[in-house]
Structures are given as structure tokens and as C-alpha cells.
Amino acid sequence: MNSVKEACSQLKQNYDACFNTWFTEKFLRGDHSTDSCGPFFKVYRECVRKAIQEQNIDLKEIEKEIMGTEEELKPPGSK
Amino acid sequence: MGISKMLFLFPSTEIPLAQQSVRVKRSAKDQYYLRGWIRHSSREFGKVKYPDNFVDIYTNFDLKMKIWTSEHIFCHPWETVAQASWRKYPNPMNPNVVAIDVLERDVKNGILHSRRLLSSKWVFPGWARKILGSERICYAKENSTVDPTNRIMTLFTQNLTFCHLMSIDERLSYTAHPEDPSKTLLTQEAVVTVRGVPLSSYLEGFLTNTISLNANKGRQAMEWVIGKLNAEVHDLTTTAAKNLHVLTSPPTVQASSLPEC
């Protein structure tokens, strides 16, 4: 699976491989300690954030919670 | 009929999902309360069974919502389905999804919270192109939680107003089946809102069919991924079996048909 920017795809695959292993072998078996994928995630996430800025995807829109809050009652796209 | 009357008609634990259209004249404020209310009611989802059905809600503005709900059983344990969900893309059934990125992720109180950005390519049929263009990449944000203690995984996807003509909100919930812990129950709800576009019945039909088709493809995609996961396990097990003289044969799942169980 690709990333939003081609340049981040390899970083994404590295992170995904780490996460999938942790999810299956630790998290689902009751080990809730933080995954050791931190370093992979950090560098991958930085790449994605830059790509989002470059492509003008509205990050605030992504981070805003709508359902279950007051925002749910406003039409989409209104201020 | 105002919103308060509608609430009396629909008790909070069930929504009558029949094929009739419900014509409601309401103010701009009411229609968003309606959307919020239906969201709220759907939290009772796991306790009531709903057949595949549509509810059309017309308003006196150029805003049309279509609400679609569905339920499905996977003949696989919840843990398998949860793993498959993270590995769902790419798959041959959903070629439109071109990228997925994790933006945030952490574990709080034993529950995994993730936030992802989905990029998908929408291609519009001939008659819709004049209004919407031939194709565009649309982005959606997905919030998810995984609770391994209670065996519940929820995913909530909203498309961003980058593609502002249309809003599609989807909620999925994978839970261990209450009657058979070796199976997984999937409940889905999608709300499509189209704004400012004079909806012809063709475009409406296209959206309806696409969502229904995609939901079916989504389920087939999950079966396909689970098949791959099981094959991986089988390969590992076969290797181990050669040394341990223990034979196991997990079921193989055909992607083209859903299992009856």
C-alpha cells in the first residue's frame, strides 16, 4: 500500500511491518506496553506531515472531532 | 412534521428502516439535529438486528441524505478480523483506495487509538461528470479504536470537505459475535449527504449502488485478506508440523463467495 506521497511509501512499509507484528504478538495477547515501533513511526509521520502540507490537505479538518460534539450540528464546510 | 414528533415515532432503541420515503419539512437547524440523532440512535446498533435497507430523508433545502445500514457475520474469530483490518489494503476488490497513512496512534487504558488519512480515487459516471468532473482524489479521515479485552474494534470514517460536494460518513464495528465467540459480527452504517447538487435519480442510484457494492467488496476484501493470513499461518504450521508430526488444516476462504455459517 502506498503513502500519500510516493517518497514516504518505503518508510510507511517499514512502520507497518513493525506495527503488524506488535499488534498480533503483543497487543492482542494482552501486552499493552507501548510498541517498540516509535523510531519507525517518528520518521514516517514526519514525511507524511510534510507531504500533507505540500498537497494542501487541510490538517485542521483532519484533526477536528465532529461527531459527538457541538460541531455535529453544523453543516459541513460552515465556519 | 417536526423533529420532536419524529422522536416520538421512533423510540430510541429502534429505527424503522422501511423502503418508504420520509418527507420532512424542517429548518436548516433541524436537519442537522436529525443527522446527529440518527447517529445517536445507531449506538444501540449492536442490540438490534437491521436488514439491509435505506431511509431517504428529503428536506426543503438542496440537501439530501441517504442512510444505509447493514450487518454481516464473518466465520472467523475477532482477533483474526482485527489483524486483517489493518492489512486490508491493497486488495483487488478496492482498487480505488490509492493510499493510507497513519497520522496518530497510541494506547490509552489498554485501548489502541489510531487516526488515519485515506486517499481514494473517485471516478464519476458519464452523466455526473458535468457536475463533478471525471475523477478526483478525495481524502477521508478515519478514527479507530481496538479494545482487545472486550473484543471490539470500531472505525469511523468521514471524508474531508476537500471534496465538498459530497459527505460520506461511515461507521464500522467489528465485535466478537455475542452467541458464538469463534465468529465476528460486523455492523455498518453509512450516511451520504450531497449538497447543492441537483440530484438526479441516476446519480442517487449510482451512489446507492456504489455504497452497497463497496460494502460487499469490503467484506470480500476482508475474506481475501483473512485467507492470506490463514495461508501464512498454514505455511508456518506446515513447517512446524513436519518437525512435530502434528497436522492442522485451517479452512481456505474463496474471495468470490461469502461463507455461510
UniProtKB/TrEMBL annotation, chain A:
<dbReference type="GO" id="GO:0005758">
    <property type="term" value="C:mitochondrial intermembrane space"/>
</dbReference>
<dbReference type="Pfam" id="PF05254">
    <property type="entry name" value="UPF0203"/>
</dbReference>
<keyword id="KW-1015">Disulfide bond</keyword>
<keyword id="KW-0175">Coiled coil</keyword>
<dbReference type="InterPro" id="IPR007918">
    <property type="entry name" value="MDM35_apoptosis"/>
</dbReference>
<comment type="similarity">
    <text>Belongs to the TRIAP1/MDM35 family.</text>
</comment>
<feature type="coiled-coil region">
    <location>
        <begin position="45"/>
        <end position="72"/>
    </location>
</feature>
<dbReference type="GO" id="GO:0005634">
    <property type="term" value="C:nucleus"/>
</dbReference>
<dbReference type="GO" id="GO:1990050">
    <property type="term" value="F:phosphatidic acid transfer activity"/>
</dbReference>
<dbReference type="GO" id="GO:0005829">
    <property type="term" value="C:cytosol"/>
</dbReference>
<dbReference type="GO" id="GO:0045332">
    <property type="term" value="P:phospholipid translocation"/>
</dbReference>
<protein>
    <submittedName>
        <fullName>TP53-regulated inhibitor of apoptosis 1</fullName>
    </submittedName>
</protein>
UniProtKB/TrEMBL annotation, chain B:
<protein>
    <recommendedName>
        <fullName>PRELI/MSF1 domain-containing protein</fullName>
    </recommendedName>
</protein>
<feature type="domain" description="PRELI/MSF1">
    <location>
        <begin position="65"/>
        <end position="234"/>
    </location>
</feature>
<dbReference type="Pfam" id="PF04707">
    <property type="entry name" value="PRELI"/>
</dbReference>
<dbReference type="InterPro" id="IPR006797">
    <property type="entry name" value="PRELI/MSF1_dom"/>
</dbReference>
<dbReference type="InterPro" id="IPR037365">
    <property type="entry name" value="Slowmo/Ups"/>
</dbReference>
